[in-house]
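ZP: hey, is the iron/sulfur cluster complex queued? I don't see it on the tracker
AM: it wasn't, my bad. submitting now with these inputs:
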Amino acid sequence: MSAIDLYARKTTGFDERLAHAENVLIAAASEHLGRIVQSTSLGAEDMVITDLIARHQLPIALGTLETGMLHEQTVALISRIAERYGLEVEVYKPVTESVIHFVKTNGDKAMFESIDLRKACCGIRKLEPLSRMLAGRAAWVTGLRREQSNNRGVVGFSETDDKGRAKINPLADWSWNDVWHYIATHDVPYNPLHDEFMPSIGCAPCTRAIAVGEDFRAGRWWWEDEKAKECGLHVSEPAVSMIGAQA
Ligand code: SF4
């Protein structure tokens, strides 16, 4: 059974939520003309946003973090976006020397040893490349939704990050059913791993399938406590955000 079969459902208020998301994106593109980027994890929500950007021909750049640890199905979406929409995705990779040093010092399974080492790995492979993606930009667009986890329950449509940039979350009030209804209706390309019970997809070593009834993000850093389960990209404390994280 595919993710579309499982989740695509039109529920009350979908048309209004879609219209609102479009208005949020259109207004942000205009307000931050030439200085706004969609930071896409290439997950289902982000593919919806990319489709909206393409559909409305919005002047919003696309950027992604290629951590070097992604599934090949995730990386393949970069060229699928180019083929489908004619849009180029800026690819930000970690500094090779930093990765080599980290792995040499801590091993290639360090993320499982402690939260500090896991966050350090996210810092090198995600946070530092993100800082390059956002350099010189006034706003970024994410696929955060309030429903994704307790930690994200208060996500606003527009926030300010710890560097004073606007952080735009057009799908903040969307449900998982909304996301898949949009994908099904508009034939949006998506990661086939979503068909294998992976609703939230990150780096390969740190992502697993979830079981029926498990929390949406239960398959991410599943060996850690719930409160620790953010890579730092969407945590506002400066100390966390710049140590050394696309959710
Ligand atoms: S998600 Fe895992 S592999 Fe990816 S950067 Fe974070 S700790 Fe490293």
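AM: back. The chain has one domain: 3-241.
ZP: great, adding it to the tracker
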